[in-house]
Write the structure tokens for this entry.
Amino acid sequence: MFKEVSIYNKLSKAKTTEKFFNLLINSIAHNLYTPLNALIQLNKSISEILSGVNDMAETNVHMIGICLQQLVFTTHNILEMSKIRQGKFKSTIKEINLKERLQNIYEFFRDDMLYRDIKFKVEMQSKLKKNTISLDEARLQIILYNLFSNSVKHTTEGSITLTCKIIDS
């Protein structure tokens, strides 16, 4: 209740349409995160309970989990675009293992690719396979999610190949 009153006060004091829009978008996105994260945890718990008990229910719970993750990625994209519009974009560089990140995002889309009989292949320079790289992990997740989502959505048959190489060190 206090959160809604606080955002109402901020919205009513917004002097421009742009500021109003940014406050509204940020408020909606942040208010989505808490229930989405709770639902993801509940979904994981239900999935563990159903594991090996009922295949159909397990499949349905898995699909719910994928939908929830898609909502989280979409909400994150909305917040990122809002930050860019407001000039508050900040990059956080850290060391990551690219091969692990690609595996994680593949797992997210795996069932959809299997259902559509789409093969997936990664071509990666050997030094990228063995080492960590420094980059903005949050932005990479958004890019990979959007790349995979569009690739799977627009591929009706055949395969998807992702090529990873260092162009300029």
Q: What stands out?
A: The chain has a mean pLDDT of 82. The first strand starts at residue 93 and ends at 96. The longest helix spans residues 17-50.
